[in-house]
Design brief:
7-stranded mixed beta sheet, Rossmann fold, 252 residues, alpha/beta
């Protein structure tokens, strides 16, 4: 699949892969800062953003999508940042194509399997009938019945766009993402990954726990883990300066 991407800046290639329900647009502010030193590629994964929708959705496919993009660009050694679902894509990519990566940053996720915790979000998104609603405000009122956090609702509703005057549409493929949620939270299986890796976790997030450190060290022998104090799962949005500094110092 030909993924949609945008690029800014010059220098070493730095790819950014967003998380579930996200898009490349979520990284524009931080990406502009990275573009002072690198050529930044903002990528939309399949069924997200402006990339094509597909009935097929799993990490094997997302890895091949990304590999096709890197090949099309004629690049051989890249740096890559992946958040949440994007982090799992990066891990699976490094397991299959280790020679294509110089360094990778995995933001608040690991290779392990996770429990379901998006049920209310899925219910809220499905409850929004775009044939009856004609504004983001109206959609927010429906979503608020399922998702209390204003920031999370704003993040989700960024996926709405105007198909034509008076008609909103979704950039995310809600039916497929809800159907394939088990694949999104499944474990990425591999022996070890030798790629130099930086894990950045949020202190207030439960995606990477201190009890995970030993296994991460065994599976990623050339890795380190940094914690951003006071941050939750969206570490790059909640602590952008600290996140930037960690990534910049790591990549060099």
């Amino acid at each position: 699949m030909k993924l949609h991407y945008r690029t800014i800046g010059e220098g070493k290639p730095l790819f950014i892969l967003h998380g579930l329900f996200g898009s490349s647009d979520n990284w524009q502010t931080l990406g502009k800062k990275f573009a002072e030193d690198y050529q930044v590629f903002f990528v939309d994964q399949r069924n997200h953003g402006r990339s094509p929708h597909s009935e097929d959705f799993n990490y094997d496919l997302m890895v091949e999508d990304f590999a096709e993009l890197v090949d099309d660009l004629g690049l051989e050694k890249i740096n890559v940042v992946g958040h949440s679902m994007g982090g799992k894509t990066v891990i699976a990519f490094a397991a299959k194509y280790p020679d294509l990566i110089d360094k990778m940053v995995v933001a608040d996720i690991s290779h392990k399997a996770y429990e379901h915790h998006h049920d209310q979000i899925i219910k809220g998104l499905k409850a929004i009938n775009l044939n009856e609603l004609s504004s983001r405000g109206a959609a927010d009122k429906v979503l608020a019945q399922y998702v209390q956090e204003i920031g999370v609702r704003q993040f989700l509703l960024k996926n709405l766009y105007w198909v034509e005057k008076g008609q909103l549409g979704w950039r995310i493929n809600i039916p497929v993402l809800s159907r394939e949620l088990d694949r999104i939270i499944e474990e990425i299986e591999f022996d070890t990954i030798q790629t130099e890796t930086l894990f950045i976790r949020g202190e207030l997030s439960n995606y990477i726990l201190e009890s995970d450190y030993d296994e991460i060290g065994e599976k990623f022998p050339n890795s380190s883990i940094e914690t951003l104090m006071g941050s939750g799962h969206w570490v790059h949005a909640e602590s952008p300066r600290e996140f930037y500094s960690l990534v910049r110092n790591f990549i060099g």
